[in-house]
Design goal:
Largest sheet: none
Mean pLDDT: 84
Distance between the termini: 60 Å
Radius of gyration: 21 Å
Bound molecules: heme C
Order of helices and strands: HHHHHHHHHHHHHHHHHHHH
Length: about 400
């Protein structure tokens, strides 16, 4: 289906009016009072305008759509700004990470705007798909039930356009349709036409376990998928070994996903995870680390931690994200976690540890790849050095 066909459909004109209303609403002084959810509805409406166009060069170029794309972009910009302001109203340590994620979102929306203004179709297409990484970074942090009822038709609208099923799953995660996103990944994991190595390289296994363990917490479902993975007779030995170990680990840690999270237990598991392998980046730690990270996330949600404990929790999350994560291009999540550790207890040992790690990671990622310097609105290293108490 093309973007033009869709314009004739009533659902799209509803979106369009939603977008117009959105612009008007956001232009008013109530911007700061917008709740996160309201901002998100606007973001979803804007994405529903932009995504089909990003897949269709002629519609991207056509004059008739330029205006509506421009207003959708404006909604996206205003919502990103509203998110930052909304969080900025209560800048507690707990929200330092969220604030950073919102700033990173705003920054990436600005890049998207540039590519639109310069009519760079390919870049626009790429950046828009990449923007879904921002959505996922925010949404995949906490347990969730089924997705919002209004976010139903976007994926179907562009279903034939995805480059890969991994992109499809990514968009489903972005709009919080977690159950379908996991089903999409499950079919990839079971598909014998897909080389096992691709499950690793495309982050399929990581995204599946991360969202299964943190967001949906359906252990039985994950166990079934791990068993199916292990059954594949084209699996190299090391992967089938991982599948078996992950399954054992999940069994052992199952209760920790549900029970009231506890800092000293999380700390213990964090250390045990380190002892699982002498290889620094071994994937054998995946389930342990993801369970610890889910526990720490839920602890943060309770907003009872302070000072050095809070700094330690963010530092552990930062370390876990370095040793397990499938890094999402364009979202400096690891850096933001380390920043949060510094802000939680300025001048403390954890602040210095986090600063040292941040500085090193920001220069050369531990995969040996030089990382791009982060824009100052997203991360101010100079200020963080002062807070950590290490500036000369
Ligand atoms: C800075 C963090 C952040 C970013 C970036 C972000 N979201 Fe959200 N989003 C949230 C939070 C927090 C919620 C509320 C979740 C909850 O209630 O558990 C949410 C909820 C939603 C919802 C459900 C709203 C409802 O009424 O239930 C949708 C849809 C959504 N986001 C879409 C998106 C899309 C699409 C993107 C990217 C283009 C995005 N979000 C980017 C933080 C973010």
């Amino acid at each position: 289906m093309t973007f033009m066909d869709m314009n004739k459909q009533p659902s799209c004109s509803t979106f369009f009016s939603a977008v117009i209303v959105a612009v008007t609403m956001l232009a008013s002084a109530t911007v700061a009072a917008e709740s996160t959810r309201e901002s998100m509805r606007l973001v979803y409406a804007a994405l529903s305008e932009l995504l089909p166009a990003a897949f269709n060069e002629s519609s991207f170029e056509s004059e008739s759509s330029t205006e509506r794309l421009a207003s959708a972009l404006e909604v996206l910009e205003n919502s990103a700004e509203a998110l930052v302001e909304h969080v900025g109203e209560s800048p507690t340590e707990v929200s330092a990470e969220f604030m950073g994620l919102a700033r990173s979102f705003e920054n990436n929306v600005a890049l998207l705007r540039q590519s639109f203004d310069y009519h760079r179709y390919n870049e626009f297409n790429y950046l828009l798909l990449d923007l879904t990484h921002n959505c996922v970074s925010c949404h995949s942090r906490l347990p969730a039930d089924s997705g919002p009822p209004f976010a139903t038709d976007l994926v179907e609208q562009v279903d034939d356009e995805f480059y890969t099923d991994v992109d499809r799953a990514q968009l489903l995660f972005a709009i919080r349709r977690f159950d379908e996103a996991l089903s999409t990944l499950e079919s990839i994991i079971r598909d014998l036409d897909i080389e096992p190595i691709e499950l690793e390289l495309d982050g399929v296994l990581f995204d599946y376990l991360a969202n299964g363990i943190t967001v949906t917490r359906d252990v039985e479902r994950i166990q079934k998928t791990l068993a199916d993975l292990k059954e594949r007779n084209d699996l190299p030995y090391y992967m089938s070994r991982y599948a078996g170990l992950w399954s054992e680990h999940l069994d052992a840690l199952q209760a920790d996903l549900i029970e009231v999270p506890n800092l000293s237990k999380a700390r213990d598991l964090f250390r045990q995870s380190l002892n699982l392998s002498p290889i620094p980046s071994s994937q054998v730690r995946m389930v342990y680390d993801l369970v610890v990270s889910a526990m720490l996330r839920r602890l943060l949600e309770q907003q009872t931690l302070q000072g050095v404990d809070l700094a330690e929790v963010y530092w552990m999350l930062g370390v876990i994200s370095i040793r397990t994560v499938n890094p999402r291009p364009g979202v400096p999540h690891t850096e933001l976690l380390l920043e949060s550790a510094i802000r939680a207890a300025p001048g403390s040992e954890y602040a210095r540890l986090a600063y040292a790690l941040l500085e090193e990671y920001n220069r050369v990622s531990f995969a040996g790849i030089p990382t791009a310097e982060l824009p100052e609105p997203v991360l101010n290293l100079h200020e963080l050095a002062k807070l950590a108490g290490v500036s000369k």
